[in-house]
Each structure stands twice: as C-alpha cells, then as structure tokens.
Amino acid sequence: VLISILLGASFSRYQVEESVEHLLAPQHSLAKIERNLVNSLFPVNRSKHRLYSDLQTPGRYGRVIVTSFQKANMLDQHHTDLILKVMDYMGLLKCYPPGGKLEKT
Q1: CA-to-CA distance for 1 and 7, rounded, in angstroms?
Q2: Does position 1 have pLDDT exceeding 70, yes or no?
Q3: For 19-48, how does the pLDDT look when each residue is reduced to its tens digit (9 = 90+)?
Q4: What share of the chain is helix, strand, coil (3-state, %, to 5)?
Q5: pTM for this model (two decimals)
Q6: 42, 81, 98, 105: most buried, per Cβ within 10 A?
C-alpha cells in the first residue's frame, strides 16, 4: 500500500508538455523574439473555437495556388503581372445555381 501511495504521489506531479518547441528550442532565441514581435504587430485570429469557414462571409469560395515551372522568383514584375491578370479573370467568373439560371436582384 505504501508503494502505491508513493507512486501515485509521484505520478501526480507529471505534466503533459503542450509545446514541443518549449522542449527543443532555447528560451531566449532570436527567432522566438522576432516571432513574438511579428505576432504582436500583425495578430492572426487563430481561435480554436471557430472554424476557418466561420471567419468568411457566406458564399462559394475557391483557391488558386500559383507556382513556377522553373522555380523562378514569383515576385518579379513579369510573374506579378501574370498573377494580377489571373485575378482579373477570376473576378469575371460567374457561378450559376444548380437550376442553371441566375436570379435577378
């Protein structure tokens, strides 16, 4: 009985570590300091109680991922112009309901 009490008391002190980063990274590393600064200046709503879809307005959404065949810089002027052209074309897309006709509002 004494052994079980001692083991029970010692196991009660164990805690589950939620953050693996806390175990592996230095406490005061430059990357942590910079990340905390960026998170304080540009907060992101990462609520665990809301779904990502709840943060958008109702409607149908699609995503486009743009990549380069030759692993080129996507921020140069040529690629930026192409991406903006794709965005313009996407703005012209129309989605029709299953019946096939658009309702006039």
Answers
A1: 10
A2: yes
A3: 777 777 777 778 788 878 877 776 665 555
A4: 45, 0, 55
A5: 0.35
A6: 81
Instruction: Give Cβ neighbours of residue 56 (< 8 Å, ≥ 6 apart).
Output: none
Report how far apart, in Å, the C-alpha atoms of 13 and of each of 2, 4, 5, 7, 17 are: 17, 15, 13, 10, 12
Q: 82 CB contacts (<8 Å, ≥6 apart)?
A: 66
CB atoms within 10 A of CB 80: 12
Which residue do the tokens 């009985």 mark?
1
The answer to whether 93 and 60 are in contact (CB under 8 A) is: no
Helix locations, 12-98, DSSP H: 20-24, 30-41, 77-91
The two tokens of residue 86 are 């794709």
Q: How far apart are CA 90 and CA 70, in angstroms?
A: 24
